[in-house]
Design brief:
It is a single chain. With 297 residues, the chain is an alpha+beta fold. The protein has three domains: 101 residues; 31 residues, no CATH class; 134 residues, no CATH class. The protein contains eight helices and four strands; from the N terminus they run E-E-E-H-E-H-H-H-H-H-H-H. It has a four-stranded mixed beta sheet with strand order 1-2-4-3, covered by helices on one side. Strand 3, helix 1 and strand 4 form a beta-alpha-beta unit. The longest helix has 73 residues.
């Protein structure tokens, strides 16, 4: 199924725990790019999971520039925070303070505030403990999977719209090709009349054999059957490619280049105002398709 490279998805999830409630939110944006370019913005605690997260994305997407941001909010279930003291360090500090008082007889003892500010006395609250890290890592990966699925659904929806647009333009191109092909008989006939009329104006008697040779030469020089055949073949290939269940953006872009090449040749060899007009309209259709193909995965 055809997929666009432009999409956006956002998903949230809450993870209830005994000590913390983890709230996660993934926001993912993708735009067109020649390759798969992944830019992750994740909390430092998930740095070790970065490669695993990127691998999940690679398994889901083929092309496009992707910007993904994970926001994590942690709320504690405990309403009151407790201060944890390192009792051994506190006792050592108090004993040292008492010895200094005895030695000097003048230095006052340490205040409670000074004791709490002493390095190592108060233990750091380990909110990002091992259990929290494991829960966060698992939830981040699961939520990434579901957010990517939403993103892919949006890309497929846009891809269906692009497929309809390209198909419609191809149908119009086929009509132009048929019109040019049917007009070639009139072009050759008009060329013959032009040469005969020119000879009549010059009041000369032309050699019929030589005249026929010149007409054949001119007809061959203006022959565009090969270009029309190749245009038709490329359009048939586009129809086939649109049905493939794989990334086809590069293939379609190549086919657009080939269509444009044949349309240019058709314009240069037309020697007919109506054919030239049809060729220009054909180039407009090709350019419209090419701009959309740049956005296809």
């Amino acid at each position: 199924m055809l997929k666009s490279m432009t999409a956006f998805a956002r998903d949230e999830q809450k993870v209830e725990g005994t000590e913390q409630c983890i709230e996660l939110c993934w926001e993912i944006r993708t735009v067109n790019h020649r390759h798969l370019d992944i830019n992750l913005h994740i909390p430092d605690i998930l740095t070790a999971d970065e490669n695993n997260l990127k691998e999940i994305i690679r398994n889901k997407l083929g092309r496009g520039r992707l910007d993904a941001k994970l926001t994590v909010h942690l709320s504690s279930s405990n309403n009151h925070q407790t201060i944890q003291l390192d009792e051994e360090k506190t006792k050592t500090l108090l004993a040292a303070s008492q010895r200094l008082q005895q030695m000097s007889g003048q230095i006052s003892g340490l205040t409670v505030s000074e004791i709490l500010q002493w390095p190592g006395v108060v233990k750091e609250a380990k909110t990002q403990n091992e259990a929290y890290s494991v829960a966060l890592s698992k939830s981040a990966k699961e939520l990434l999977e579901s957010t990517l699925n939403s993103l892919i659904n949006m890309r497929e929806t846009e891809g269906r719209r692009l497929s309809v647009m390209i198909t419609t333009r191809c149908e119009s191109a086929v009509k132009l090709i048929q019109s040019v092909r049917s007009r070639r008989v009139e072009v050759v006939k008009a060329l013959r009349e032009k040469i005969v009329n020119k000879l009549s104006e010059l009041d000369v008697i032309a050699d019929n054999n030589r005249l026929e040779q010149e007409l054949v030469y001119q007809a061959q020089r203006l022959d565009v059957d090969e270009e029309l055949d190749r245009l038709g073949a490329h359009i048939d290939e586009i129809y086939a490619v649109l049905k493939r269940d794989e990334p086809v953006g590069r293939r379609l872009d190549f086919l657009m280049q080939e269509l444009n090449r044949e349309a240019n040749t058709l314009t240069s060899k037309s020697n007919d105002a109506e054919t030239t007009k049809s060729a220009v309209e054909l180039k407009v259709l090709i350019e419209q398709m090419r701009e959309q193909c740049l956005n296809i995965e």
